[in-house]
Structure formats: C-alpha cells, structure tokens
C-alpha cells in the first residue's frame, strides 16, 4: 500500500520560487517521501493569507514562506499559533543577519528579485535561446552558447540546460550517439565551454527501463540493454577525451548539485 502524500504549502508575497527552490533542495535529501507541494504566490493581503493558512492546516503539513511585509509576517505567526501549524521562515533569518551585521534595514517590498532589470532580460534571452537549441536542434548556435552539454540519452541534459538558463546562461545540449559523427562545431569550441555528462551503467539501465515502461514500450529493447549502455559510455568517454572537456558523473546527483559543478568549471 502506498504511503500517504505529505503536504508542504509555500506562501509568498512575490512568486514563491525562492521558497520552492529551498524546499526542493531539502526534498532531495529524503528518500521514499511522497510530497505534494502547493504554492500560493502574490499573497498581499491579510485575508488572503488567513485563507491560505486555513487550507494548509487541513492538510497536516507545514508552511514555508517568504514574506517581507511586516504586517503579513506578523499575521502568519499569529495564524500559526491559532491553527497549531508549523511554519518555516525562509528569508527572515537572512534579513535579520543583514540588519544585525551591517546595521541596515530591508526595503520591505515584495518582488524585488523579479524586477525587470538587465539581469531579468538576460535570463529571458538565455531561456529562449536554450529552448530553441534543445537536443541539438541548432548546431550553429553552439558557437554562440555559454555552455554546451554533451551526454547520452537520459543524462538530464534538458533539465540541466533549463536550470542553467534561469541563471542567465545560454546553453546548447547535444545527444551523443555512437552511430552519428559529432558535429564539427564541437572541435571549434574551447574545452572549458563544454561539459560531458556520464552515469554509472547500472543506474542508466534502471532509468531507461523505467522510461520505456512509462511509454508503454518493451523494456527488453536494445536501448535499455547493459551492453548498449556500456557501448555508449565508452564512445562518449572517448569523445570527451578528444575534446578535452570536463566530465561530470551525474549518478545520484541532484540537478542543483550538477549545475553548481558546471558553473564552477566554466
């Protein structure tokens, strides 16, 4: 019998993606946990906040919040006591550290992180570029990219690309297949702009088999055979060596962890 799903409510007077990023990072540290995340963004009034808290209390979970307006911060604490509901303040301790250490005061305006500044437009441009170049669709774009991700099928190239694009990096990802010669553009790039992705064969086998099940395809196909996977790994490793690019083994690594390693390399 499946374990019941746990509920985490995210509440923010902005978009709520900061709180969700923290929650997702924590979830990666726990195995076999079925968690449902409900996100409420742009909560700007006390009545809205009370409704969110009452809904969260019905689910017997907890609330992670990023609220900068003092009246909302006070209200959520009051509602937590009234409803006997656990709350986690994502931004409060950091803001207090700034106040105590630098003798400064916060602006207390929600959404400052998402103002339409130069960084915002750079991220949007990077995301559009990365989506257009997914899975090797525009080989010419490799020469314009900040990062080129190389890897076999199911090495998380697309989610990694989008994650990095949200940080303002233009990313091209290219699937490595032994039967297809690598494009000449790869050999014109400086090695530090390319990242090779690999994975332990047994782990890859499990992922590919599950993928075939989801698609309703036979799990005994060559795509999900250990022999084929080892062949692809050998081919990929030989190509990475020719290119002289860094290689990351993503086995059991979270997207955020791999992205951090990539940013360190480039």
From TrEMBL:
Keyword Kinase recorded: yes
This protein's record includes keyword Lipid biosynthesis: no
Species of origin: Paenibacillus apii
Family per similarity comment: Belongs to the pyruvate, phosphate/water dikinase regulatory protein family. PDRP subfamily.
GO molecular function, one term: protein serine/threonine kinase activity
Annotated ADP binding sites: 151-158
Described purpose of this protein according to its UniProt entry: Bifunctional serine/threonine kinase and phosphorylase involved in the regulation of the pyruvate, phosphate dikinase (PPDK) by catalyzing its phosphorylation/dephosphorylation.
Record key words, sorted: Kinase, Nucleotide-binding, Serine/threonine-protein kinase, Transferase
Protein name: Putative pyruvate, phosphate dikinase regulatory protein
Catalysed reactions, semicolon-separated: N(tele)-phospho-L-histidyl/L-threonyl-[pyruvate, phosphate dikinase] + ADP = N(tele)-phospho-L-histidyl/O-phospho-L-threonyl-[pyruvate, phosphate dikinase] + AMP + H(+); N(tele)-phospho-L-histidyl/O-phospho-L-threonyl-[pyruvate, phosphate dikinase] + phosphate + H(+) = N(tele)-phospho-L-histidyl/L-threonyl-[pyruvate, phosphate dikinase] + diphosphate
EC number assigned by the record: 2.7.11.32, 2.7.4.27
């Amino acid at each position: 019998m499946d374990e019941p799903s746990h509920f985490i409510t995210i509440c923010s007077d902005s978009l709520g993606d900061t709180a969700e990023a923290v929650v997702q990072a924590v979830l990666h540290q726990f195995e076999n946990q079925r968690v449902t995340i409900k996100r409420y963004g742009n909560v700007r009034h006390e009545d809205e906040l009370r409704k969110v808290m009452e809904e969260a209390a019905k689910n017997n979970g907890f609330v992670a919040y990023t609220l900068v307006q003092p009246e909302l911060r006070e209200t959520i604490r009051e509602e937590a006591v009234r409803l006997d509901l656990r709350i986690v303040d994502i931004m409060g301790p950091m803001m207090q550290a700034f106040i105590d250490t630098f003798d400064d005061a916060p602006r207390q305006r929600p959404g400052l992180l998402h103002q339409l500044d130069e960084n915002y437009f750079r991220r949007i441009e990077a995301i559009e570029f990365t989506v257009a170049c997914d899975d090797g669709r525009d080989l010419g774009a490799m020469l314009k990219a900040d990062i080129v991700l190389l890897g076999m099928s199911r090495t998380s190239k697309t989610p990694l690309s989008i994650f990095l694009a949200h940080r303002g990096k233009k990313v091209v990802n290219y699937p490595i297949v032994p039967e297809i010669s690598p494009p000449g553009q790869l050999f014109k790039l400086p090695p530090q702009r390319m990242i090779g992705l690999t994975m332990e064969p047994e782990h890859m086998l499990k992922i590919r088999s599950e993928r075939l099940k989801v698609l309703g395809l036979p799990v005994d196909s060559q795509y999900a055979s250990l022999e084929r996977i080892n062949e692809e790994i050998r081919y990929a490793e030989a190509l990475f060596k020719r290119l002289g690019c860094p290689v990351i083994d993503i086995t059991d690594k979270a997207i955020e962890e791999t992205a951090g390693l990539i940013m360190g390399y480039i």
